[in-house]
């Protein structure tokens, strides 16, 4: 499992190969096993597979070029009516997003996390495009597919960032 964490990279080019619905369901299930404040689970997902929708939302997001080749995208949204306290959906949706990224890697897929939050303009454009209810806030967009590029594992362990008991 640690190799899944260490080897997960942001992949922006994908093979022209579909991802089956069962695999997407398994990835979403893993996402839903993320921790959330007081177990409120304030999340919803929009699974995007239509190329016309991918093209449209690629134009709404400044870093969504990976949607040009990705067969699937998952938008993670937070439900402010379910969150434990104001803005807690943000940390809950971050945990969900990370679970999705790791589950996809474990299942042989690659991903790219594209933040929607905190850009107010992007949040509003995604909310309008998907006709989201007022209590549903778009948080992240994840491209999912079989990577057409490989990235090596970088060395990120940095002992200077570890502090024990105090700074």
Short précis:
It is built from 5 helices and 4 strands.
Question: Which helices and strands appear, and what pairs or packs with what?
Answer:
Blueprint: H1 2-7, H2 21-32, E1 43-48, H3 51-58, E2 72-79, H4 88-106, E3 110-115, H5 120-129, E4 136-145
Antiparallel strand pairs: 1-2, 2-4, 3-4
Helix pairs in contact: 2-4
Structural class: alpha+beta
Mean pLDDT metric: 97
Per CATH, which architecture? 3-Layer(aba) Sandwich
CATH topology: NADH Oxidase
Please, what is the oligomeric state?
Answer: single chain
Number of continuous helical runs: 5
At the first level of CATH, the class is Alpha Beta
Written overview of the protein:
Helix 2 (21-32) crosses helix 4 (88-106). The protein has five helices and four strands; from the N terminus they run H-H-E-H-E-H-E-H-E. 33% of the residues lie in helices and 18% in strands. The chain has a four-stranded antiparallel β-sheet, with helices on both faces. The chain has one domain: NADH Oxidase. By secondary structure, it is α+β, with helices and mostly antiparallel strands. It has helices at 2-7, 21-32, 51-58, 88-106, 120-129, and strands at 43-48, 72-79, 110-115, 136-145.
Please tag this protein with its features:
33% helix, NADH Oxidase, 18% strand, 167 residues, four-stranded antiparallel sheet
